[in-house]
Task: inverse folding
DNA sequence: AACCTTTGCGCAAAGCTTTGCGGAATTATC
DNA sequence: GATAATTCCGCAAAGCTTTGCGCAAAGGTT
């Protein structure tokens, strides 16, 4: 760090005025004469003065950093959401500090603690898969620390959230399968405690009902969102006495793992088994057959989360928590139409 | 923020001792009696005291945040490197603040300025594609601000860098094509000013030479690493009077764009055209045919960058810049063997 | 010419931490 | 019992910024 940055003190000494005068001049305070103001501002410009955010943070008890916690840094889903958050943050003079929970509840708590110790302005996060106990958010909520959940959420009555229309999307997928002639429609779901899992299962069941298809428990299997687990789930489905003719995967990892396993068993997509996933555009179009999928507006989710966050930061009183529900789009490609 | 955190002052008042005594007690200073030390530490524990990093930063002129600048947040390559950086940072009590240059030289400079104004401890970054002028790093270098470049680098005599064995990898690819029977081997290269482009072109030419193949200028085309540009480059190659029978793409985006375009023109991979890219594992195995590719140890690159950074931070004197060269691995799959 | 209002600037505190130095009280020494 | 040496703790400054308050000089008023 060294003596890189000049401070108000430097400016003041150079101009032979007091520090407070310099401070006021830089903020165009009317108490300071026009000519002195100009002289100060010119010198500040010349010496590349920038106020020390540490000092300001200390004084004002506020910070311009947003803590962001994701279960995983590497997948497209999260990195594009981060990208959205970063863009909003940047536009409003905020910086994002990223930590990864690696889907662990314990690590999530640790990340949270650490970021709070760092004195971030608040937290934007997606719950870890493992997290089932939501008590560690109580303090934050009570103390009105700005907090936004996205995708995997909890306590929505108390915390602002950004989600997609999971139920509706799952319903549409199911109906799309039906309309394409598929009748034994399976669903590889995520961990049972996650809101996204529950909502998508509900949509799946609702879709089945609307198509007058009975819900068959054996066609609903859970996985932990990892590739091996999704592969295993697919195997389980394909080993059923009466094989499903369509599979709807809960996310992109699941869908691709399923695709590989289906192919490995010598089955053809979409003829033998139809396949749909929640994915991002790039992946879905590069595989063969191209994958029908529900597009998450991930970048927009990130931006929306950022905006909800800023809303809380800027509010003098604590604003009522808001629920942003973004709409997904079912993009029909080769894998689900025969 | 509010009154969330207790300060030394609170502890001192509660115990009726001075702030400095509390400070010393917490750091086990021998001047403080054992019993008082214990009392202080117990209270601190109870009240969940954590020292304010803003105050410490102000006092010691140092920070525990690392500025990270990437050209793109979304691609696997960068997000997995970020993941590596984050893990090292975390292990050593540092936090990473991420900014995105969107491949723009101007934005890159802006990110750099902003992060320095935030008083980060230093910068880990990958150059934007557009960046051709490296003058804005001179200040940092002179003032010995910890700085590490990865992948796309400049001024390696002055700055620590993390790269892969680009030349060697490109040479291996070329020879692999030759050994698989390909003879008109084309290369879709990146922007000419990037070190990675230059090194891979050199490796490509060296490989050709070793196989007694003449270098044909028309088989070397540049793209800007975007999908449309890579598609266009592929088109250009395939439209040549004598079509190449093998294409080596400079990165994953390029390789996949090429794959799509080759297929679109009704050509078969690997029979009509062999294809190899620099990619990550997941993408490469999910496409059809599976893609032979050079695997970047991306996570390791991130970790290495983090370690080189910490080396600079912890050194009292400025350490000599170090060049970490990680080795890639050529993973042969279906797309390059007929 | 005496008083009042502006105008223009500085003092000092607060926010939190670390640390050199000084000082009071206790113990040891002669 | 007086002096020297410990032991244990507090004062204050530094790091940087903002802001309420006070104060001097200048100008205006009668």
Result:
């Amino acid at each position: 760090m060294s003596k890189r940055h000049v401070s108000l003190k430097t400016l003041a000494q150079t101009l032979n005025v007091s520090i407070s005068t310099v401070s006021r001049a830089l903020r165009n305070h009317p108490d300071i004469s026009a000519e002195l103001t100009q002289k100060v501002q010119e010198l500040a410009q010349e010496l590349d003065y920038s106020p020390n955010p540490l000092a300001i943070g200390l004084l004002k008890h506020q910070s311009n950093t947003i803590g962001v916690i994701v279960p995983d840094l590497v997948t497209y889903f999260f990195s594009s959401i981060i990208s959205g958050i970063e863009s909003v943050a940047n536009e409003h003079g905020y910086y994002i500090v990223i930590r990864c929970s690696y889907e662990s509840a314990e690590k999530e708590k640790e990340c949270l603690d650490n970021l709070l110790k760092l004195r971030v302005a608040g937290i934007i996060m997606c719950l870890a898969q493992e997290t089932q106990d939501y008590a560690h958010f109580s303090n934050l909520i009570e103390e009105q620390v700005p907090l936004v959940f996205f995708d995997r959420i909890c306590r929505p009555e108390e915390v602002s959230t950004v989600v997609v229309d999971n139920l509706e999307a799952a319903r549409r997928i199911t109906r799309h399968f039906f309309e394409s002639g598929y009748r034994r429609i399976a669903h590889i779901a995520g961990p049972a405690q996650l809101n996204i899992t529950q909502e998508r299962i509900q949509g799946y069941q609702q879709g089945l009902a609307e198509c007058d298809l009975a819900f068959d428990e054996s066609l609903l299997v859970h996985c932990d969102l990892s590739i091996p687990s999704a592969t295993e789930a697919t195997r389980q489905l394909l080993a059923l006495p009466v094989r499903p003719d369509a599979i709807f995967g809960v996310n992109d990892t699941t869908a691709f793992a399923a695709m590989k396993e289906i192919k490995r068993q010598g089955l053809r997509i979409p003829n033998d088994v139809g396949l749909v996933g929640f994915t991002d555009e790039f992946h879905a179009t590069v595989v063969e057959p191209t994958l029908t999928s529900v597009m998450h507006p991930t970048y927009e989710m990130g931006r929306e989360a950022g905006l909800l966050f800023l809303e809380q930061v800027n509010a003098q009183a604590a604003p009522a928590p808001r629920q942003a529900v973004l709409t997904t789009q079912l993009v029909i490609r080769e894998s689900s139409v025969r």
